[in-house]
């Protein structure tokens, strides 16, 4: 395993990398008067107008429908993969599926199905199948093996799986499925920004019209939807909810794509030199794509991700204390909890879209969105741990408790959770290009807009490889952290780690 790494050494290393990235970052404020724009948005959000409630209600229903059906299909596929996850082929397929963001899947699927129900469902189901496969396999592996041994040697593997492993793992699987549904609602809302009729579409429409009151209504409804998901979604109601979701999706009318869309797509993903019968031109074609799109996009993606990671760490470091009543008092803890709920409820893409309206097109909106969202997630998880720490009867309160008790005891978990989110931040940084920031998503969106699907597929593969590489590096660093790593044998720590690697 090699020598262990010190926690402060890792923090210093990431800070040094971020400082090197600063000169390469475009942090210019391009808006004419960002504070006036922020004030107008704030007034709209504080006084939401529900005049367009019929449009919002339909968008909410479709957001729910896409999320439920997509998560259900992804969960079913993941459950089928989970028992065989140790096989290299299954594990490789799951990694490939989950390394591509839902928006990137949607952009490709639009070329086959158009703006249709299947584009939205599969854009969620495909990456979630890979995520479910990994997580459910871990949950099944952690199930107590003793009941399976009691069945005796004559019991076949399927019987052991259905009657001993599934019942023991079911509670945690259900809990994780509910958490994944929350992520699916975020993904479903974001799909509206590329044309599907979910809440993101309504938010984009109201912003384009300058109707910030109606946009505030959309955001208020969205926060309420995410915050109450565990109240209205119960295991016994899954079948009725799914039936209602399917019925809702049947009301969506899609423009026809014409015959041969799938064949054209399969033909277009073949590199242009090979389609034109010029195999010798493949290497120059790849070299041009590498120098003109992949490397510049990768550099911008890494710059955004590293700066966002530092901001997320700072938000989490401070935020871990704000929801602990012994530190900030009951009123302060309630306010801090509300702030963290709002920040972690909104997807990074949606937050970046809002900041883009204020600060204009630069890396700043993406860095702020990624840092605040991920920092709120980590801060929330750490705050829950801090609230359950066993303290001495004479333990201090306020900042003294935070600085001398909470920070030292949770610093290892803080660092490990940041490393878990690192891969997610890289993945989300890439999609910010769709908003006009020159990350890998910018070049992918440009290639699809020009109907150069072969270039898009290569850029997408590069994005997936970068995500997988960063995930492997993160795991290697965590493995060398020693006591700072999360103990996966502890079920509570495992659940927190899974939440940290989620949406």
Describe the structure concisely for a colleague:
This protein has helices at residues 7-21, 34-46, 53-81, 88-98, 102-113, 117-142, 146-150, 157-190, 199-208, 212-227, 229-232, 238-249, 261-268, 272-275, 282-322, 325-345, 348-359, 363-387, 398-431, 440-449, 453-479, 491-500. The chain has 503 residues and is mainly α.
Question: Care to describe what's here?
Answer:
- The chain has 503 residues and is mainly α.
- The protein is built from 22 helices and no strands.
- The protein starts with 6 loop residues before the first helix and ends with a helix.
Chain-wise SSE layout:
Layout: H1 7-21, H2 34-46, H3 53-81, H4 88-98, H5 102-113, H6 117-142, H7 146-150, H8 157-190, H9 199-208, H10 212-227, H11 229-232, H12 238-249, H13 261-268, H14 272-275, H15 282-322, H16 325-345, H17 348-359, H18 363-387, H19 398-431, H20 440-449, H21 453-479, H22 491-500
Helix pairs in contact: 1-15, 2-10, 3-6, 3-8, 3-9, 3-12, 4-6, 5-6, 5-20, 6-8, 9-10, 15-18, 15-19, 15-20, 15-21, 16-18, 16-19, 17-18, 18-19, 19-21, 20-21
| Largest beta-sheet characterization | none
**SSE string, helix = H, strand = E?**
HHHHHHHHHHHHHHHHHHHHHH
Number of helices: 22
What is the terminal separation in angstroms? Answer: 30 Å
Number of distinct beta strands: 0
Into which percent range does the helicity of residues fall? over 70%
Report the sheet-strand fraction.
Answer: under 5%
Structural class label: mainly alpha
Segments where pLDDT lies below 50 for 5+ residues?
Answer: 483-492
Q: What is the mean predicted local confidence, pLDDT?
A: 85
Shape: globular
Radius of gyration: 23 Å
């Amino acid at each position: 395993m090699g020598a262990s790494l010190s926690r402060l050494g890792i923090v210093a290393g990431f800070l040094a990398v971020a400082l090197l990235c600063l000169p390469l970052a475009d942090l210019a404020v391009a808006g004419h008067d960002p504070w006036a724009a922020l004030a107008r948005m704030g007034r709209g959000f504080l006084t939401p107008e529900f005049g367009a409630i019929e449009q919002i209600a339909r968008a909410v229903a479709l957001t729910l429908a896409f999320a439920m059906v997509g998560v259900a299909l992804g969960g079913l596929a993941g459950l089928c993969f989970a028992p065989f996850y140790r096989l290299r082929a299954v594990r490789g397929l799951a990694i490939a599926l989950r390394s591509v963001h839902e928006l990137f899947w949607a952009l490709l699927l639009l070329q086959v199905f158009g703006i249709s129900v299947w584009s939205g469902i599969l854009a969620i189901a495909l990456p979630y199948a890979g995520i479910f496969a990994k997580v459910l396999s871990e949950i099944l592996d952690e199930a107590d093996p003793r009941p399976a041994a009691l069945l005796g040697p004559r019991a076949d593997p399927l019987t052991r799986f259905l009657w001993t492993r599934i019942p023991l793992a079911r509670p945690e699987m259900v809990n994780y499925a509910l958490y994944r549904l929350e992520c699916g609602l975020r993904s479903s809302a974001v799909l509206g920004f590329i044309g599907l009729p979910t809440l993101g579409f309504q938010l984009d429409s109201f912003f384009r019209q300058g109707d910030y009151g109606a946009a505030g209504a959309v955001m208020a409804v969205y926060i309420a939807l995410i915050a109450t998901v565990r109240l209205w979604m119960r295991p016994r109601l899954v079948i009725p909810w799914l039936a209602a979701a399917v019925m809702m999706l049947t009301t969506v009318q899609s423009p026809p794509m014409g015959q041969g869309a799938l064949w054209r797509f399969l033909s277009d993903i073949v590199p242009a030199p090979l389609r034109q019968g010029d195999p010798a031109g493949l290497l120059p074609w790849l070299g041009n794509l590498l120098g003109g799109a992949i490397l510049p996009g990768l550099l911008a993606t890494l710059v955004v991700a590293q700066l966002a990671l530092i901001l997320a760490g700072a938000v989490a470091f401070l935020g871990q204390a704000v929801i602990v009543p012994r530190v900030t008092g009951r009123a302060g803890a309630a306010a801090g909890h509300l702030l963290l709920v709002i920040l972690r409820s909104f997807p990074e893409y949606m937050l970046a879209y809002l900041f883009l309206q204020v600060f204009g097109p630069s890396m700043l909106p993406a860095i702020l969105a990624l840092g605040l969202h991920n920092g709120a997630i980590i801060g929330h998880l750490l705050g829950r741990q801090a609230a359950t720490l066993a303290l001495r009867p004479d333990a201090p309160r306020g900042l003294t408790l935070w600085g001398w008790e909470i920070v030292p005891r949770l610093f290892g978990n803080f660092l490990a959770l940041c490393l878990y989110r690192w891969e997610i931040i890289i993945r989300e940084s890439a999609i910010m290009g769709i908003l006009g920031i020159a990350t890998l998503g910018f070049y992918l969106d440009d290639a699809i807009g020009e109907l150069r699907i072969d270039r898009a597929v290569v850029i997408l593969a590069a994005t997936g490889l970068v995500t997988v590489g960063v995930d492997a590096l993160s795991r290697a660093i965590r493995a060398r952290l020693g006591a700072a790593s999360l103990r996966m044998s502890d079920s509570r720590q495992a659940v927190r780690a899974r939440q940290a690697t989620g949406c």
